[in-house]
Hints:
Layout: H1 3-28, E1 35-38, E2 49-54, E3 57-65, E4 68-70, E5 73-77, E6 81-88, E7 93-97, E8 103-106, E9 110-117, E10 124-129, E11 142-148
Parallel strand pairs: 3-6, 5-11
Antiparallel strand pairs: 1-9, 2-3, 3-4, 6-9, 7-8, 7-10, 10-11
Amino acid sequence: MDKFELVFVIIVIAILTSFLSALIYATNFGYQPPTVCSVYPAVQAFKSGIEEIQPGIYKVRVIAERFYFDPSIIVLKNPKKVIFEVLSRDVLHGFEIVGTNVNVMIMPYYTATFTWDVPQDLKGDFLIVCNEYCGEGHQIMYAHLIIER
C-alpha cells in the first residue's frame, strides 16, 4: 500500500468516526426532531397563545404568517420546559430563537410541535426570527421571547 493511500484511508476513517460520534451524541443526549402534522382543515381554528400547563412548563402556540408572528411578545416566568406549536398559514417560514438551539422550519398549513428544555441560567430578551425567505417583507418578521427569573 502506497504512503498516500494510507493517509487517505486514515482521513476517511477519521471523518466517518467523527460523523458517527456526532450521531451517537445527538441521539443519546436529548435531540428531538420536531413532530409535524397537518392541520389543513383546522387552519383558521388554530389559536395562538401562552398557557402554563404546570409550574415552569409552558405550551406556546404561535402563528407564522406574512410578515409577523402571533403572539409577537412571549413572556415566560421561570420556564423549565416549553412546548411550542408553530403553524404557518401561508408559505414556508422559519422559527429561530437567536442565541439558543431552537431552529425549526415551518411548512405551509402544518404545525411543528417541539419541546425546548430551557437552560436554568437563561434569562432576558431573545429575538425570534423567520430564517426562511418568505417574501418582500421577510426582514420585518420577528417576535420577542422574554424570560424572567
